[in-house]
């Protein structure tokens, strides 16, 4: 139930107390301050964690990390950040991409991995909620088996409910500008969440609970026709396949590399040849080495979990972990750190809920029921939602060419044509502005999650955009 103080506050805002009671009636909100983290020590910034129930009986409990703005928390906007997957933990955003911490990449010696500050954290200019969603992601869980059956639409609905309840429990943020953000697969869900918020506000006669201003997405999954279909021209433009093979595939597949290959033998043969040519390329960033820590010869994560179940506290990870030079090495450090009992105690994780934390849960009972998000982008643009769509230009998972293609289908007017954007005296990428506040930008040299590769450039891009300045 809402408190007397909250009641008076929301009355002044003109928000219906009936709606507030409905949202909070069965909700147990348990925010907890985190003052210190193992592997780092006392935190120089504020961190809150907690759980929120997002279904009718609060069987589905979503876990979150919240970092208030380190700049001007009174005026800076509030961002809800969702990692891709689906099923990849919000800890990825917190320690790999846009959050205030990073892992120290040092050779693992059996001790707890250590963390360092990220000078380019987006929390310098905004307050950010990193949400473990959908259910089954990170530390989020359900008390009943049925609760784990989720999908794009359920994910979006529960994320909206989460944000409404979170704002009610943090009334000082009610009036803040709100943005929904994420990358990779969350490109399917973020526009749907934003649309849910706008459509839900239509049903409230008084002031809406969420002051949504826009959304931003990095290398977003949108529609397989564009996302997967752009990999062939991308491979050609990046000199991964020869011109003759590209022209043959383009001719035999009639430019439809996703649908047409199922019924056309010559097309399928060309695509198989292209697949063989690029099989050893790191699709997340084509210039980086391809390292697979999950292949049979590197089953360290799997063996760690098996041994931990059998021997529990008596077993320790062997100090010799291969692929130290690979970016995927951070996955090993993160797995060890997040499964440490002292870390989970510091984060106020409810005990006895999860057997083992995994960065990306690939076993979700998940319905991919949003085939294309293009129509949602068009709807949001027509409603005046600002948007920033950015792409690391060396990502072959969701190439920038495909993102440019679906943006073109929106038939928006160009307000500021293709030009470089700079950090210092260097070109950091290229950008184009469209009508109603849609901005597209490439991040030069970036991979699938651009802030992970180029944190300084991406912070400059984000800071300018969130402050409504030209890139």
UniProtKB/TrEMBL annotation:
It comes from Eucalyptus globulus. The keyword Lipid biosynthesis does not apply. It comes from the Eukaryota. Belongs to the peptidase S10 family. Keywords: Carboxypeptidase, Glycoprotein, Hydrolase, Protease, Signal. GO terms for biological process: proteolysis. Gene3D superfamilies: 3.40.50.12670, alpha/beta hydrolase. PROSITE patterns: CARBOXYPEPT_SER_HIS. The keyword Signal applies. This is Uncharacterized protein. GO terms for molecular function: carboxypeptidase activity. It holds the Pfam family Peptidase_S10. Transmembrane segments: none annotated.
């Amino acid at each position: 139930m809402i408190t007397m103080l909250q009641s008076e506050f929301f009355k002044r805002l003109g928000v219906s107390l009936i709606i507030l009671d409905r949202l909070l009636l069965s909700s147990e909100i348990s925010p907890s301050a985190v003052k210190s983290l193992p592997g780092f020590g006392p935190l120089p910034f504020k961190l809150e964690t907690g759980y929120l129930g997002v279904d009718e009986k609060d069987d589905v409990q979503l876990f979150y990390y919240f970092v208030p703005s380190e700049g001007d928390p009174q005026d800076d906007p509030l961002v809800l950040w969702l990692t891709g997957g689906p099923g990849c933990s919000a800890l990825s955003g917190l320690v790999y991409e846009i959050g205030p911490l990073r892992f120290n990449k040092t050779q693992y010696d059996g001790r707890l991995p250590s963390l360092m500050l990220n000078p380019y954290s987006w929390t310098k200019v905004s307050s950010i909620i990193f949400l473990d969603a959908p259910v089954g992601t990170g530390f989020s869980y359900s008390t009943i088996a049925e609760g784990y059956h989720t999908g794009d639409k359920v994910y979006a609905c529960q994320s909206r409910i989460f944000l409404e309840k979170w704002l009610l429990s943090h009334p000082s943020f009610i009036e803040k500008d709100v943005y929904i953000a994420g990358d990779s697969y969350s490109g399917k869900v973020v526009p749907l969440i934003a649309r849910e918020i706008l459509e839900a506000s239509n049903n409230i006669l008084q002031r809406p609970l969420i002051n949504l201003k826009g959304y931003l997405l990095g290398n977003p999954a949108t529609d397989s026709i564009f996302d997967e279909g752009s990999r062939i021209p991308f491979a050609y433009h990046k000199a991964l396949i020869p011109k003759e093979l590209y022209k043959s595939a383009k001719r035999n597949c009639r430019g439809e590399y996703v649908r047409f290959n199922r019924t056309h033998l010559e097309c399928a043969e060309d695509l198989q040849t292209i697949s063989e040519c690029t099989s050893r390329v790191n699709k997340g960033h084509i210039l980086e080495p391809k390292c697979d820590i999950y292949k049979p010869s590197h089953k360290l994560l799997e063996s760690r979990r098996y041994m931990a179940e059998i021997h529990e506290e008596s077993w320790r990870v062997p100090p010799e972990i291969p692929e130290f030079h690979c970016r995927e090495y951070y996955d090993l450090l993160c797995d060890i750190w997040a499964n440490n009992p002292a870390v989970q105690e510091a984060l106020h994780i409810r005990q006895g809920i999860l057997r083992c934390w995994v960065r990306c849960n690939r076993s979700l009972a998940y319905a991919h029921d949003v085939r294309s998000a293009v129509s949602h982008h068009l709807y949001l643009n027509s409603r005046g939602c600002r948007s920033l769509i950015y792409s690391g230009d060396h990502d072959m998972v969701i190439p920038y060419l495909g993102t440019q293609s679906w943006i073109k289908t929106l038939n928006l007017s160009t307000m500021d044509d293709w030009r470089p954007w700079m950090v210092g005296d260097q070109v950091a990428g290229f950008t184009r502005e469209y009508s109603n506040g849609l901005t597209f930008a490439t991040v030069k040299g970036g991979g699938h999650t651009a802030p992970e590769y180029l944190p300084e450039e991406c912070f400059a891009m984000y800071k300018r955009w969130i402050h409504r300045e030209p890139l």
